[in-house]
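Researcher: Quick one. four chains, 454 residues in total.
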Amino acid sequence: MKISELSRRTGVPVASIKYFRREGLLPAGRATAARLAEYGEEHVQRLRLIKALTTLGGLSIAATRDVLAAVDQAETTDGTLRAISYALPVPVTAASAGDAERDADAEAAAEADVTRLIAAMDWKIPDTSPHIRGLAMALRELRRLDADYRPERLVAYAELAHSIARLDLERAAAFDDSPALAEQAVIVLALSGPMLELLRRLAQEDQVRRRSTLDDNPEEGPGDGPR
Amino acid sequence: MKISELSRRTGVPVASIKYFRREGLLPAGRATAARLAEYGEEHVQRLRLIKALTTLGGLSIAATRDVLAAVDQAETTDGTLRAISYALPVPVTAASAGDAERDADAEAAAEADVTRLIAAMDWKIPDTSPHIRGLAMALRELRRLDADYRPERLVAYAELAHSIARLDLERAAAFDDSPALAEQAVIVLALSGPMLELLRRLAQEDQVRRRSTLDDNPEEGPGDGPR
DNA sequence: CAGTACTGGATAGTGGCAGTATCTTCTTAA
DNA sequence: TTAAGAAGATACTGCCACTATCCAGTACTG
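Model:
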Protein backbone atom coordinates (compact mmCIF):
# COMPACT_ATOMS: atom_id res chain seq x y z
CA MET A 1 0.00 0.00 0.00
CA LYS A 2 1.05 3.58 -0.51
CA ILE A 3 1.80 5.95 2.29
CA SER A 4 -1.52 7.72 1.89
CA GLU A 5 -3.40 4.49 2.44
CA LEU A 6 -1.22 3.66 5.42
CA SER A 7 -2.18 7.05 6.78
CA ARG A 8 -5.86 6.44 6.15
CA ARG A 9 -5.79 2.98 7.73
CA THR A 10 -4.08 4.15 10.90
CA GLY A 11 -5.31 7.68 11.25
CA VAL A 12 -1.75 8.94 11.45
CA PRO A 13 -1.05 11.94 9.19
CA VAL A 14 1.35 11.36 6.33
CA ALA A 15 3.73 13.96 7.67
CA SER A 16 3.88 12.14 10.99
CA ILE A 17 4.57 8.83 9.30
CA LYS A 18 7.48 10.44 7.55
CA TYR A 19 8.62 11.88 10.84
CA PHE A 20 8.56 8.48 12.51
CA ARG A 21 10.59 7.07 9.65
CA ARG A 22 13.14 9.84 10.02
CA GLU A 23 13.42 9.14 13.72
CA GLY A 24 13.89 5.44 13.13
CA LEU A 25 10.65 4.25 14.69
CA LEU A 26 9.22 2.88 11.50
CA PRO A 27 11.16 0.89 8.91
CA ALA A 28 11.14 2.13 5.35
CA GLY A 29 8.75 0.56 2.94
CA ARG A 30 9.90 -1.88 0.30
CA ALA A 31 11.20 0.28 -2.52
CA THR A 32 9.49 -0.39 -5.82
CA ALA A 33 11.21 2.42 -7.68
CA ALA A 34 13.70 5.12 -7.01
CA ARG A 35 11.07 7.30 -5.48
CA LEU A 36 8.31 4.90 -4.58
CA ALA A 37 7.84 2.43 -1.77
CA GLU A 38 5.33 -0.17 -0.74
CA TYR A 39 4.06 -0.54 2.84
CA GLY A 40 2.50 -3.62 4.38
CA GLU A 41 0.53 -4.86 7.34
CA GLU A 42 3.63 -4.81 9.49
CA HIS A 43 3.74 -1.06 9.07
CA VAL A 44 0.14 -0.75 10.16
CA GLN A 45 0.85 -2.81 13.25
CA ARG A 46 4.02 -0.89 13.98
CA LEU A 47 2.20 2.41 13.80
CA ARG A 48 -0.42 1.12 16.23
CA LEU A 49 2.34 0.10 18.58
CA ILE A 50 4.02 3.48 18.26
CA LYS A 51 0.79 5.24 19.07
CA ALA A 52 0.12 3.00 22.04
CA LEU A 53 3.59 3.48 23.45
CA THR A 54 3.51 7.24 23.08
CA THR A 55 -0.07 8.04 24.03
CA LEU A 56 -0.76 5.30 26.57
CA GLY A 57 2.73 4.56 27.70
CA GLY A 58 3.68 8.20 27.71
CA LEU A 59 7.03 7.45 26.10
CA SER A 60 8.92 10.09 24.20
CA ILE A 61 9.78 9.53 20.58
CA ALA A 62 13.38 8.82 21.53
CA ALA A 63 12.37 6.29 24.21
CA THR A 64 9.95 4.65 21.81
CA ARG A 65 12.73 4.25 19.29
CA ASP A 66 14.92 2.52 21.86
CA VAL A 67 12.16 0.20 22.95
CA LEU A 68 11.26 -0.71 19.39
CA ALA A 69 14.92 -1.36 18.65
CA ALA A 70 14.92 -3.86 21.51
CA VAL A 71 11.79 -5.46 20.07
CA ASP A 72 13.39 -5.80 16.68
CA GLN A 73 16.59 -7.29 17.99
CA ALA A 74 14.67 -10.01 19.79
CA GLU A 75 16.65 -13.22 19.77
CA THR A 76 15.83 -15.34 22.76
CA THR A 77 12.78 -14.95 24.95
CA ASP A 78 14.78 -13.97 27.99
CA GLY A 79 17.02 -11.64 26.08
CA THR A 80 14.00 -9.92 24.65
CA LEU A 81 12.38 -9.45 28.00
CA ARG A 82 15.56 -8.15 29.50
CA ALA A 83 16.31 -5.79 26.66
CA ILE A 84 12.84 -4.30 26.81
CA SER A 85 12.98 -4.02 30.56
CA TYR A 86 16.10 -1.90 30.24
CA ALA A 87 15.01 0.02 27.18
CA LEU A 88 12.04 1.44 29.02
CA PRO A 89 12.86 4.80 30.50
CA VAL A 90 13.10 5.11 34.23
CA PRO A 91 10.43 7.42 35.50
CA VAL A 92 11.97 9.83 37.97
CA THR A 93 15.52 10.39 36.91
CA ALA A 94 16.59 13.94 37.35
CA ALA A 95 16.06 15.35 40.77
CA SER A 96 17.13 18.66 42.18
CA ALA A 97 20.33 20.17 43.32
CA GLY A 98 18.71 21.03 46.63
CA ASP A 99 20.69 22.60 49.35
CA ALA A 100 23.35 20.08 48.46
CA GLU A 101 24.59 19.98 52.04
CA ARG A 102 24.23 16.36 53.04
CA ASP A 103 22.70 15.42 49.73
CA ALA A 104 25.25 12.69 49.35
CA ASP A 105 24.38 11.38 52.80
CA ALA A 106 20.66 11.38 52.21
CA GLU A 107 21.19 9.79 48.83
CA ALA A 108 23.33 7.04 50.27
CA ALA A 109 20.84 6.43 53.07
CA ALA A 110 17.96 6.19 50.61
CA GLU A 111 19.92 3.80 48.46
CA ALA A 112 20.68 1.66 51.49
CA ASP A 113 16.95 1.58 52.24
CA VAL A 114 16.26 0.36 48.75
CA THR A 115 18.93 -2.30 49.02
CA ARG A 116 17.42 -3.48 52.28
CA LEU A 117 13.97 -3.59 50.74
CA ILE A 118 15.23 -5.64 47.83
CA ALA A 119 16.89 -8.05 50.22
CA ALA A 120 13.70 -8.32 52.28
CA MET A 121 11.71 -9.09 49.16
CA ASP A 122 14.29 -11.60 48.05
CA TRP A 123 14.49 -9.89 44.70
CA LYS A 124 17.42 -10.64 42.45
CA ILE A 125 18.41 -7.34 40.98
CA PRO A 126 21.86 -6.17 39.97
CA ASP A 127 23.21 -3.21 41.90
CA THR A 128 23.60 -1.37 38.66
CA SER A 129 19.90 -1.30 37.88
CA PRO A 130 18.80 2.22 37.09
CA HIS A 131 15.56 1.56 38.92
CA ILE A 132 17.42 1.34 42.19
CA ARG A 133 18.76 4.83 41.82
CA GLY A 134 15.38 6.05 40.63
CA LEU A 135 13.59 4.67 43.65
CA ALA A 136 16.27 6.00 45.96
CA MET A 137 15.86 9.47 44.54
CA ALA A 138 12.11 9.25 44.84
CA LEU A 139 12.37 8.19 48.45
CA ARG A 140 14.78 10.97 49.28
CA GLU A 141 12.39 13.50 47.81
CA LEU A 142 9.46 12.03 49.71
CA ARG A 143 11.43 11.92 52.93
CA ARG A 144 12.15 15.59 52.50
CA LEU A 145 8.40 16.18 52.40
CA ASP A 146 7.99 14.42 55.74
CA ALA A 147 6.11 11.64 54.06
CA ASP A 148 6.32 8.35 55.88
CA TYR A 149 7.92 6.02 53.40
CA ARG A 150 10.15 4.01 55.66
CA PRO A 151 11.15 0.57 54.44
CA GLU A 152 8.58 -1.11 56.67
CA ARG A 153 5.89 0.88 54.96
CA LEU A 154 7.31 0.17 51.56
CA VAL A 155 7.23 -3.58 51.97
CA ALA A 156 3.46 -3.65 51.67
CA TYR A 157 3.68 -1.77 48.39
CA ALA A 158 6.56 -3.91 47.23
CA GLU A 159 4.57 -7.07 47.76
CA LEU A 160 1.73 -5.72 45.69
CA ALA A 161 4.18 -4.66 43.01
CA HIS A 162 5.55 -8.16 43.08
CA SER A 163 2.11 -9.62 42.49
CA ILE A 164 1.55 -7.29 39.60
CA ALA A 165 4.85 -8.20 38.03
CA ARG A 166 3.93 -11.85 38.32
CA LEU A 167 0.66 -11.24 36.54
CA ASP A 168 2.50 -9.33 33.85
CA LEU A 169 5.15 -11.93 33.27
CA GLU A 170 2.61 -14.71 33.21
CA ARG A 171 0.85 -12.92 30.44
CA ALA A 172 4.04 -12.30 28.52
CA ALA A 173 5.16 -15.90 29.00
CA ALA A 174 1.99 -17.10 27.36
CA PHE A 175 3.49 -15.92 24.10
CA ASP A 176 6.74 -17.75 24.64
CA ASP A 177 8.32 -18.92 21.42
CA SER A 178 5.70 -17.12 19.42
CA PRO A 179 6.86 -14.61 16.85
CA ALA A 180 4.63 -12.08 18.54
CA LEU A 181 6.45 -12.52 21.83
CA ALA A 182 8.56 -9.41 21.60
CA GLU A 183 5.60 -7.29 20.69
CA GLN A 184 3.32 -8.68 23.36
CA ALA A 185 6.11 -8.43 25.89
CA VAL A 186 6.61 -4.78 25.21
CA ILE A 187 2.88 -4.22 25.52
CA VAL A 188 2.79 -5.99 28.84
CA LEU A 189 5.92 -4.42 30.23
CA ALA A 190 5.30 -0.89 29.01
CA LEU A 191 1.55 -0.54 29.10
CA SER A 192 0.55 -2.39 32.24
CA GLY A 193 1.78 0.58 34.21
CA PRO A 194 -0.54 3.19 32.78
CA MET A 195 -3.46 0.78 32.87
CA LEU A 196 -2.76 -0.07 36.47
CA GLU A 197 -2.47 3.61 37.27
CA LEU A 198 -5.96 4.14 35.90
CA LEU A 199 -7.31 1.24 37.94
CA ARG A 200 -5.58 2.62 41.00
CA ARG A 201 -7.19 5.98 40.44
CA LEU A 202 -10.59 4.37 40.14
CA ALA A 203 -9.98 2.38 43.30
CA GLN A 204 -8.83 5.54 45.03
CA GLU A 205 -11.98 7.28 43.96
CA ASP A 206 -14.01 4.44 45.42
CA GLN A 207 -12.09 4.60 48.67
CA VAL A 208 -12.52 8.33 48.92
CA ARG A 209 -16.25 8.02 48.32
CA ARG A 210 -16.58 5.30 50.92
CA ARG A 211 -14.91 7.52 53.46
CA SER A 212 -17.30 10.31 52.55
CA THR A 213 -20.43 8.35 53.23
CA LEU A 214 -19.45 5.87 55.92
CA ASP A 215 -16.79 8.24 57.12
CA ASP A 216 -15.50 6.46 60.17
CA ASN A 217 -15.80 2.92 59.00
CA PRO A 218 -12.49 1.88 57.52
CA GLU A 219 -13.84 -1.64 57.11
CA GLU A 220 -15.46 -2.60 53.92
CA GLY A 221 -18.67 -3.82 52.47
CA PRO A 222 -18.96 -7.28 50.96
CA GLY A 223 -17.27 -8.30 47.78
CA ASP A 224 -14.00 -6.54 47.84
CA GLY A 225 -10.49 -6.87 49.06
CA PRO A 226 -8.22 -9.04 47.04
CA ARG A 227 -7.59 -12.50 48.34
CA MET B 1 13.70 35.61 54.31
CA LYS B 2 14.43 37.19 50.96
CA ILE B 3 13.87 35.51 47.66
CA SER B 4 17.56 34.84 47.21
CA GLU B 5 17.71 32.92 50.47
CA LEU B 6 14.56 31.02 49.55
CA SER B 7 16.34 30.10 46.37
CA ARG B 8 19.46 28.99 48.22
CA ARG B 9 17.50 26.93 50.74
CA THR B 10 15.49 25.07 48.12
CA GLY B 11 17.89 24.93 45.22
CA VAL B 12 15.29 26.50 42.95
CA PRO B 13 16.60 29.40 40.83
CA VAL B 14 15.20 32.81 41.61
CA ALA B 15 13.80 33.12 38.12
CA SER B 16 11.88 29.89 38.58
CA ILE B 17 10.48 31.01 41.90
CA LYS B 18 9.17 34.11 40.20
CA TYR B 19 7.74 31.93 37.45
CA PHE B 20 5.90 29.76 39.94
CA ARG B 21 4.49 32.86 41.58
CA ARG B 22 3.30 34.16 38.25
CA GLU B 23 1.63 30.86 37.49
CA GLY B 24 -0.12 30.84 40.84
CA LEU B 25 1.70 27.86 42.33
CA LEU B 26 3.37 29.83 45.05
CA PRO B 27 1.69 32.53 47.14
CA ALA B 28 3.33 35.93 47.26
CA GLY B 29 5.49 36.77 50.22
CA ARG B 30 4.31 39.10 52.95
CA ALA B 31 4.96 42.60 51.63
CA THR B 32 7.19 44.65 53.87
CA ALA B 33 7.45 47.60 51.53
CA ALA B 34 6.22 48.64 48.14
CA ARG B 35 8.87 46.60 46.46
CA LEU B 36 9.96 44.12 49.07
CA ALA B 37 8.50 40.95 50.45
CA GLU B 38 9.30 38.45 53.14
CA TYR B 39 9.10 34.68 52.63
CA GLY B 40 8.68 32.05 55.30
CA GLU B 41 8.97 28.34 55.97
CA GLU B 42 5.65 27.74 54.27
CA HIS B 43 7.22 28.91 51.05
CA VAL B 44 10.10 26.52 51.48
CA GLN B 45 7.68 23.66 52.04
CA ARG B 46 5.52 24.71 49.13
CA LEU B 47 8.49 24.77 46.80
CA ARG B 48 9.45 21.27 47.92
CA LEU B 49 5.93 20.13 47.19
CA ILE B 50 5.98 21.78 43.78
CA LYS B 51 9.21 20.07 42.91
CA ALA B 52 7.96 16.71 44.10
CA LEU B 53 4.72 17.00 42.15
CA THR B 54 6.45 18.04 38.95
CA THR B 55 9.57 15.86 38.99
CA LEU B 56 8.24 12.78 40.79
CA GLY B 57 4.58 13.08 40.00
CA GLY B 58 5.27 14.19 36.45
CA LEU B 59 2.58 16.86 36.67
CA SER B 60 2.61 19.85 34.39
CA ILE B 61 2.77 23.32 35.86
CA ALA B 62 -0.93 23.83 35.11
CA ALA B 63 -1.90 20.53 36.75
CA THR B 64 0.26 21.32 39.74
CA ARG B 65 -1.50 24.64 40.12
CA ASP B 66 -4.89 22.93 40.13
CA VAL B 67 -3.80 20.35 42.65
CA LEU B 68 -2.31 22.96 44.94
CA ALA B 69 -5.47 25.01 44.67
CA ALA B 70 -7.39 21.98 45.92
CA VAL B 71 -4.92 21.64 48.77
CA ASP B 72 -5.37 25.26 49.75
CA GLN B 73 -9.13 25.13 49.67
CA ALA B 74 -9.16 22.21 52.05
CA GLU B 75 -12.19 22.45 54.30
CA THR B 76 -13.29 19.03 55.39
CA THR B 77 -11.19 15.92 55.21
CA ASP B 78 -13.46 14.26 52.71
CA GLY B 79 -13.82 17.33 50.59
CA THR B 80 -10.08 17.67 50.46
CA LEU B 81 -9.55 14.10 49.40
CA ARG B 82 -12.21 14.34 46.77
CA ALA B 83 -10.98 17.65 45.40
CA ILE B 84 -7.45 16.34 45.09
CA SER B 85 -8.62 13.12 43.53
CA TYR B 86 -10.31 15.11 40.79
CA ALA B 87 -7.63 17.75 40.44
CA LEU B 88 -5.06 15.14 39.47
CA PRO B 89 -4.84 14.84 35.73
CA VAL B 90 -6.07 11.68 34.10
CA PRO B 91 -3.22 9.91 32.43
CA VAL B 92 -4.29 8.79 28.97
CA THR B 93 -6.79 11.30 27.74
CA ALA B 94 -6.37 12.04 24.09
CA ALA B 95 -6.39 9.04 21.86
CA SER B 96 -6.35 8.83 18.12
CA ALA B 97 -8.81 9.41 15.38
CA GLY B 98 -8.07 5.99 13.99
CA ASP B 99 -9.94 4.71 11.02
CA ALA B 100 -13.00 6.12 12.75
CA GLU B 101 -15.23 3.44 11.25
CA ARG B 102 -16.73 1.72 14.24
CA ASP B 103 -14.79 3.85 16.69
CA ALA B 104 -17.99 4.71 18.48
CA ASP B 105 -18.86 1.02 18.75
CA ALA B 106 -15.47 0.04 20.10
CA GLU B 107 -15.56 2.94 22.48
CA ALA B 108 -18.98 2.01 23.80
CA ALA B 109 -17.96 -1.64 24.16
CA ALA B 110 -14.84 -0.67 26.08
CA GLU B 111 -16.84 1.59 28.34
CA ALA B 112 -19.31 -1.20 28.99
CA ASP B 113 -16.41 -3.43 29.96
CA VAL B 114 -15.23 -0.85 32.43
CA THR B 115 -18.71 -0.49 33.88
CA ARG B 116 -18.92 -4.25 34.30
CA LEU B 117 -15.53 -4.31 35.98
CA ILE B 118 -16.56 -1.61 38.39
CA ALA B 119 -19.71 -3.49 39.23
CA ALA B 120 -17.76 -6.69 39.75
CA MET B 121 -15.41 -4.90 42.10
CA ASP B 122 -18.33 -3.30 43.91
CA TRP B 123 -16.72 0.07 43.47
CA LYS B 124 -18.83 3.13 43.99
CA ILE B 125 -17.84 5.49 41.24
CA PRO B 126 -20.02 8.05 39.47
CA ASP B 127 -20.52 7.45 35.76
CA THR B 128 -19.09 10.84 35.10
CA SER B 129 -15.66 10.02 36.46
CA PRO B 130 -13.00 10.94 33.92
CA HIS B 131 -11.07 7.84 34.91
CA ILE B 132 -13.77 5.66 33.41
CA ARG B 133 -13.37 7.21 30.01
CA GLY B 134 -9.60 7.11 30.38
CA LEU B 135 -9.58 3.41 31.15
CA ALA B 136 -12.03 2.72 28.36
CA MET B 137 -9.79 4.47 25.88
CA ALA B 138 -6.76 2.63 27.14
CA LEU B 139 -8.56 -0.70 26.78
CA ARG B 140 -9.71 0.12 23.29
CA GLU B 141 -6.16 0.91 22.28
CA LEU B 142 -4.84 -2.28 23.85
CA ARG B 143 -7.56 -4.35 22.25
CA ARG B 144 -6.51 -2.95 18.91
CA LEU B 145 -3.03 -4.28 19.58
CA ASP B 146 -4.43 -7.76 20.15
CA ALA B 147 -3.47 -7.61 23.78
CA ASP B 148 -5.56 -9.77 26.00
CA TYR B 149 -7.18 -7.33 28.40
CA ARG B 150 -10.60 -8.83 28.75
CA PRO B 151 -12.54 -8.01 31.90
CA GLU B 152 -11.72 -11.37 33.45
CA ARG B 153 -8.05 -10.56 33.07
CA LEU B 154 -8.53 -7.11 34.42
CA VAL B 155 -10.15 -8.22 37.64
CA ALA B 156 -6.87 -9.55 38.97
CA TYR B 157 -5.25 -6.17 38.35
CA ALA B 158 -8.24 -4.35 39.74
CA GLU B 159 -8.02 -6.27 42.99
CA LEU B 160 -4.40 -5.34 43.36
CA ALA B 161 -5.23 -1.73 42.56
CA HIS B 162 -7.87 -1.91 45.24
CA SER B 163 -5.33 -3.08 47.79
CA ILE B 164 -3.00 -0.30 46.86
CA ALA B 165 -5.70 2.29 47.19
CA ARG B 166 -6.54 0.94 50.61
CA LEU B 167 -2.94 1.28 51.68
CA ASP B 168 -2.87 4.82 50.32
CA LEU B 169 -6.03 5.93 52.04
CA GLU B 170 -5.00 4.37 55.30
CA ARG B 171 -1.89 6.45 55.19
CA ALA B 172 -3.76 9.61 54.32
CA ALA B 173 -6.35 8.96 57.01
CA ALA B 174 -3.62 8.85 59.61
CA PHE B 175 -3.39 12.60 59.20
CA ASP B 176 -7.10 13.13 59.65
CA ASP B 177 -7.92 16.42 61.29
CA SER B 178 -4.32 17.44 61.17
CA PRO B 179 -3.47 20.71 59.45
CA ALA B 180 -1.03 18.74 57.34
CA LEU B 181 -3.81 16.50 56.06
CA ALA B 182 -4.27 18.17 52.72
CA GLU B 183 -0.58 18.18 52.05
CA GLN B 184 -0.02 14.58 53.07
CA ALA B 185 -3.11 13.56 51.16
CA VAL B 186 -1.80 15.06 47.98
CA ILE B 187 1.52 13.37 48.51
CA VAL B 188 -0.17 10.03 49.00
CA LEU B 189 -2.64 10.40 46.15
CA ALA B 190 -0.26 11.92 43.64
CA LEU B 191 3.07 10.35 44.44
CA SER B 192 2.17 6.79 45.31
CA GLY B 193 1.74 6.11 41.63
CA PRO B 194 5.27 6.92 40.51
CA MET B 195 6.74 5.17 43.52
CA LEU B 196 4.66 2.09 42.84
CA GLU B 197 5.71 2.22 39.22
CA LEU B 198 9.33 2.09 40.29
CA LEU B 199 8.65 -0.84 42.59
CA ARG B 200 6.78 -2.58 39.80
CA ARG B 201 9.73 -2.12 37.51
CA LEU B 202 12.07 -3.56 40.09
CA ALA B 203 9.74 -6.49 40.60
CA GLN B 204 9.54 -6.95 36.85
CA GLU B 205 13.28 -6.97 36.65
CA ASP B 206 13.39 -9.64 39.31
CA GLN B 207 10.80 -11.73 37.49
CA VAL B 208 12.66 -11.41 34.23
CA ARG B 209 15.90 -12.47 35.88
CA ARG B 210 14.26 -15.44 37.53
CA ARG B 211 12.97 -16.58 34.19
CA SER B 212 16.45 -16.27 32.77
CA THR B 213 18.09 -18.54 35.31
CA LEU B 214 15.39 -20.95 36.45
CA ASP B 215 13.56 -20.49 33.21
CA ASP B 216 10.78 -23.01 33.61
CA ASN B 217 9.99 -22.61 37.27
CA PRO B 218 7.16 -20.13 37.67
CA GLU B 219 6.95 -20.89 41.39
CA GLU B 220 8.77 -18.76 43.83
CA GLY B 221 11.21 -18.74 46.63
CA PRO B 222 10.19 -17.87 50.18
CA GLY B 223 9.16 -14.49 51.37
CA ASP B 224 6.99 -13.17 48.64
CA GLY B 225 3.46 -13.00 47.40
CA PRO B 226 1.27 -10.51 49.15
CA ARG B 227 -0.99 -11.97 51.77
C1' DC C 1 24.35 60.22 52.29
C1' DA C 2 26.38 58.35 48.16
C1' DG C 3 27.20 53.94 46.17
C1' DT C 4 26.32 49.44 45.38
C1' DA C 5 23.90 45.31 45.66
C1' DC C 6 19.75 43.45 45.79
C1' DT C 7 14.40 43.30 45.41
C1' DG C 8 9.72 42.45 43.17
C1' DG C 9 7.45 42.77 38.96
C1' DA C 10 6.80 42.96 33.88
C1' DT C 11 8.12 41.38 29.58
C1' DA C 12 10.82 39.13 26.33
C1' DG C 13 13.78 35.39 24.90
C1' DT C 14 15.50 30.38 24.79
C1' DG C 15 15.73 25.46 24.00
C1' DG C 16 13.64 21.12 23.48
C1' DC C 17 10.03 18.32 21.70
C1' DA C 18 6.62 16.67 18.55
C1' DG C 19 4.95 17.27 15.00
C1' DT C 20 3.44 20.00 10.37
C1' DA C 21 4.27 22.38 5.95
C1' DT C 22 6.70 23.37 1.94
C1' DC C 23 9.59 22.50 -1.88
C1' DT C 24 11.76 19.63 -5.28
C1' DT C 25 12.22 15.75 -7.91
C1' DC C 26 10.26 11.77 -9.50
C1' DT C 27 6.46 8.06 -10.88
C1' DT C 28 2.37 6.56 -12.66
C1' DA C 29 -2.37 6.07 -14.03
C1' DA C 30 -5.91 8.43 -16.84
C1' DT D 1 1.10 14.24 -21.74
C1' DT D 2 -0.46 15.88 -17.93
C1' DA D 3 -2.41 15.96 -13.34
C1' DA D 4 -2.24 13.51 -9.02
C1' DG D 5 0.16 11.65 -5.92
C1' DA D 6 4.90 9.81 -3.67
C1' DA D 7 9.38 10.30 -1.58
C1' DG D 8 12.85 12.89 0.68
C1' DA D 9 15.05 17.08 2.56
C1' DT D 10 14.52 21.06 4.99
C1' DA D 11 12.16 24.63 7.27
C1' DC D 12 8.58 26.15 10.12
C1' DT D 13 5.16 26.05 14.10
C1' DG D 14 3.15 25.72 18.74
C1' DC D 15 3.60 24.51 23.26
C1' DC D 16 5.96 24.19 27.50
C1' DA D 17 9.04 25.17 31.18
C1' DC D 18 11.92 27.83 32.19
C1' DT D 19 15.63 31.92 31.94
C1' DA D 20 17.25 36.61 31.07
C1' DT D 21 16.75 41.44 30.85
C1' DC D 22 14.95 45.69 32.21
C1' DC D 23 12.94 48.79 35.45
C1' DA D 24 11.81 51.34 39.50
C1' DG D 25 12.39 50.96 44.32
C1' DT D 26 14.85 49.43 48.90
C1' DA D 27 18.59 48.61 52.18
C1' DC D 28 22.90 47.93 54.01
C1' DT D 29 27.96 49.99 53.81
C1' DG D 30 31.25 52.88 54.82
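Residues 2-4, 14, 18, 21-22, 29, 33-37 of chain A lie near DNA strand D (CB under 10 Å from a C1').
Researcher: Thanks, that's what I needed.
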